[in-house]
Amino acid sequence: MTEKATPSPEAIKAWARLMRVSRQLMESAEEALKAAGLPPLAWYDVLHELAEAGEGGLRPFQLIERTLFAQYNISRLLTRLEADGLVEKLPVADDGRGQTIRIAAKGREIRRQMWAVYGRSIAELVGAKLSADELTMVSALLGRLRHPPAGD
Amino acid sequence: MTEKATPSPEAIKAWARLMRVSRQLMESAEEALKAAGLPPLAWYDVLHELAEAGEGGLRPFQLIERTLFAQYNISRLLTRLEADGLVEKLPVADDGRGQTIRIAAKGREIRRQMWAVYGRSIAELVGAKLSADELTMVSALLGRLRHPPAGD
DNA sequence: TCAAGCTTGATGCAATTGCATCTATCGTCT
DNA sequence: AGACGATAGATGCAATTGCATCAAGCTTGA
Predict the structure, then answer these.
(1) Rounded distance in angstroms from the CA atom of residue A141 to the C1' atom of nucleotide C17
(2) Over the stretch B14-50, which tens digit does the pLDDT of each residue have?
(3) How confident is the model at residue A151, as a pLDDT?
(4) Is the CB of A97 under 7 A from strand D?
(5) CA B13 – C1' C28 distance (Å)?
(6) Alpha helices in chain A (DSSP H)
(7) Got the DSSP string for chain B?
(8) Is A137 on the interface with B (CB under 8 A)?
(9) Which Gene3D superfamilies does this one have (chains A, B) (predicted)?
(10) What is d(CA A15, CA A32) in angstroms, rounded to the nearest whole number?
């Protein structure tokens, strides 16, 4: 496990699998959403975070931390979400620069509809392919690849 | 492991980890290439396939099968690669529609330079985090998520 | 208090992606 | 041969992304 310039064959294979499978799965899920006439996955990620945050909402920079999207990406995504009435932008009292984003009723509804499709994709693409123990093992191993690493 | 509309918590967690970690790792690798003044990962994928194919080259539709890129994406990528002198487009004898793409000497050289950086990323981001056995396990588990599945 | 630097979020512009469609050629069937 | 559908690859146009930069507000420190 020492740092080397040239990766082991096992590392190369794991990397290749990871890249290929994740892309394939993501595209499948994306396709299912599109087929249902629903917005793309990125919207779900944001709506999910906002739904979990509740009425207090979140600041855009918090969304950036949680979703890993780029700043300009979030900025424009929020513009679209607001234009569609899925979120509200509220001024924040103690910081004139900032704003608080709160999910709107329509946003919760769209998120619900998206989850019906997205959740089904997850169940079919992942839940149906591996046992609970195997899924837990995948999570644990992938967790150690994060930065910072975590094994939970 | 029956098909359900609502995925298990284990499936959701594994999915989330997979999406998040793969994106994070990809971005790290991409960033390393950019920092080295080298082209993006997509170029590597194509050059890699072409290098493996050897002098015979590959048809664009074969590249699509191997890399999972969209047709228009490959078409434009090849235009750029050719413009940079990394590949050659050759007419193919028995099919007037098609062409054969062959990697050029400069393409091999760029690929070599990219691998120096990319390989290091893989070694650091993956090879240094998990043992060989664990990496093999990751590959096997992810392999079962492919379509079609494979466990090798 | 006010200048200098940092943080938050937006935006102009170029490059890329996605979608739909197009052209050209091929293969097949009559 | 000729028509019809399928396949290979390119491309116009709209949407999105990435990069760099900007404007506005905050914080600190002399």
Answers:
(1) 32
(2) 999 999 999 999 999 999 999 999 999 999 999 999 9
(3) 57
(4) yes
(5) 51
(6) 9-35, 41-53, 60-67, 71-83, 105-122, 132-143
(7) ----SS--HHHHHHHHHHHHHHHHHHHHHHHHHHHTT---HHHHHHHHHHHHHGGG-B-HHHHHHHH---HHHHHHHHHHHHHTTSEEEEE-TT-TT-EEEEE-HHHHHHHHHHHHHHHHHHIIIIITTS-HHHHHHHHHHHHTTSSS----
(8) yes
(9) Winged helix-like DNA-binding domain superfamily/Winged helix DNA-binding domain (1.10.10.10)
(10) 26
pLDDT value of residue A4: 64
The fold of the B21-143 domain, in CATH, is: Arc Repressor Mutant, subunit A (1.10.10)
The CATH number given to A40-143 is 1.10.10.10
Q: Give the span between the Cα atoms of A71 and A120, in whole angstroms.
A: 30
Report residues 20-59 of A contacting strand C, contact meaning Cβ closer than 7 Å: 34, 59
Instruction: Show me where the domains of chain B are located.
Output: 21-143
Low-confidence ranges of chain A (pLDDT < 70): 1-4, 149-152
Q: Are A125 and A149 in contact (CB under 8 A)?
A: no
Q: What angle do CA A53, B23, A112 make, to 5 degrees?
A: 40
Q: Kindly give the confidence (pLDDT) of every residue in chain B, 152 residues in length, as a single tens digit, with 9 standing for 90 and above.
A: 555 679 999 999 999 999 999 999 999 999 999 999 999 999 999 999 999 999 999 999 999 999 999 999 999 999 999 999 999 999 998 899 999 999 999 999 999 999 999 999 999 999 999 999 999 999 999 999 997 776 56
Q: Does A131 touch chain B (CB under 8 A)?
A: yes
Whole-number pLDDT of residue A5: 77
Tokens matching residue A113: 């509809």
Backbone angles phi, psi at A54, to 5 degrees: 75, -160
How far apart are the C-alpha atoms of A107 and A35, rounded to whole Å? 19
